Amino acid sequence: MVIGIVGYGAYVPKYRITIDEIAKVWGQDAQALRKGLLVEEKSVPAMDEDTITISVEAARNALLRAGIDPIKIGALYIGSESHPYAVKSSGTIVAQALGLSTNLMVADFEFACKAGTAAMQCCYGLVKAGEIEYGLAIGADTSQGRPGDALEYTAGAGGAAYIIGKDPLAELEGTFSYTTDTTDFWRRDGEKYPSHGARFSGQPGYFTHVLSASKGLMEKLSLKVEDFDYVVLHMPNGKFPTNACKLLGFPLEKLETSLVVKRMGNCYSGSSPVGLSAVLDVAKPGNRILMTSYGSGAGSDSFSFLVTDKILERQNKAPTTENYISKKENIDYGNYVKFRGKLKL
Amino acid sequence: MRRVAVIGAGYTKFGEHWNKSLRQLSTEAGALALEDAKLEGKDIQALYIGNMSSGHFIGQEHVAALAADQSGLTPIPATRVEAACASSALAFRQAVLSIMSGKHDIVIAAGAEKMTDITGASALSTLMGAGDQEWESSIGLTFAGLYALMAQRHMKDYGTTREQMAMVSVNNHKNGSLNPLAQHPFEITVEKVLNSSLIADPLRLLDCSPITDGAAAVVLVSEELAKRFENPIWVLGSGQASDTLALHNRNSMTEMLSTKVAAKIAYGEAKLKPENIDVVEVHDCFSINEIIAIEDLGFCEKGQGGKFVEDNKIARDGERPVNTTGGLKSIGHPVGATGIRQIIDIVKQLRGTYGSLQINGAKTGLALNIGGSGATAAVHILGREY
Amino acid sequence: MPYKSSVPLFWRLKDAKYSLVGTKCITCNQVFFPPADFCPQCRRKGKIEKFQFSGNGEVVSYTVIRVAPEGFEKYVPYVVAIIQLDEGTRISGQIIGDINKVEIEKRVKSVFRRITEDNDQGLIHYGIKFEIVD
Question: How far apart are CA A321 and CA A261, in angstroms?
Answer without folding.
Answer: 12
